[in-house]
Structure formats: structure tokens, C-alpha cells
Amino acid sequence: MKKLGILLLALMGMAHAADDTSLTATIARLDTEMFNAFNTCDKPGQLDKYASYFDPNIEFYHDNGGVTWTRDVMIAQTKNYVCGKYRRELVPGSLKVSPVKDFGAIATGSHTFCQLGGSKCEGIAEFTLVWRLRDNTWQVTRALSYGHRAAATE
């Protein structure tokens, strides 16, 4: 009986690991899609596509820019200050995803922002995104971008 219990725990652990791998792949795909739209938000339809990844009541906390309380304001700021000027790049290997029971996931990592037309990315920061899965749709409800600093030079 003890061996059966150990076997069941092992199987549950493997199932949980498979779920985590699937969740990580989903969030990584969403991150790529969302920031592809961000990086091309000066092109027709891309800013609206980028906006669709965020809950209307998004809370966006930025260590240098302060807090933005709605999607409409956040998207207006993106349009005015980012589109056609910067691109975001995820630092390879930095994305970490953790499940949130009955809600969604928390994604953390590092990213750089690069001026368009330049070959170097001069700044780096950490991020946290809280993703909610509702009605088969993933949206970010909270976003944090912090620890902005100059990128290490080679």
C-alpha cells in the first residue's frame, strides 16, 4: 500500500510538471505575440492587437513612469512615446512562469528596449506580468516594469 501511495505521488508530480511545461509554452507564445504587436505598433492594426492582450482595468507599475490605471491610458502612452521609436526584446532564458490556481499565471523575466534604427539595446529592466485566463482568453491584469538600468557593454 505504501508503494502505491509513492507511485501515485510520483505520477501526480509528473502530471503537474507537464502542466507547468504547457503553461510556460503558452505564456512564452503570448509574450512573443504581444510584444511582436508592441514592436510594430506604428503599423495599421498592431496597436489594437497589442491592446487586446490587456484587461481594460490593467494596472501598470513602472519604476520611472509611475502607475497607469487603465488600458486606454496605457495604450495612449504607448502610441505617443513608444510606437515607431523602440522595440522590446526578451532576454533569452530569463522568462519564468508560475501557475496561479483558478486564475492564470505569473510571468517574470528581463527585457531590453532598443531604439529603432540602432543596433544596440542600451537599457535593461525586470518585468512581472500577471496573466488571467477567463473564457478561454488570456489577458494581463497587472504589469510591473522595474529595475531600469543601462545594459552592460561588451
Automatic annotation (TrEMBL):
<dbReference type="InterPro" id="IPR027843">
    <property type="entry name" value="DUF4440"/>
</dbReference>
<feature type="signal peptide">
    <location>
        <begin position="1"/>
        <end position="17"/>
    </location>
</feature>
<protein>
    <submittedName>
        <fullName>DUF4440 domain-containing protein</fullName>
    </submittedName>
</protein>
<dbReference type="Pfam" id="PF14534">
    <property type="entry name" value="DUF4440"/>
</dbReference>
<keyword id="KW-0732">Signal</keyword>
<dbReference type="InterPro" id="IPR032710">
    <property type="entry name" value="NTF2-like_dom_sf"/>
</dbReference>
<feature type="domain" description="DUF4440">
    <location>
        <begin position="27"/>
        <end position="140"/>
    </location>
</feature>
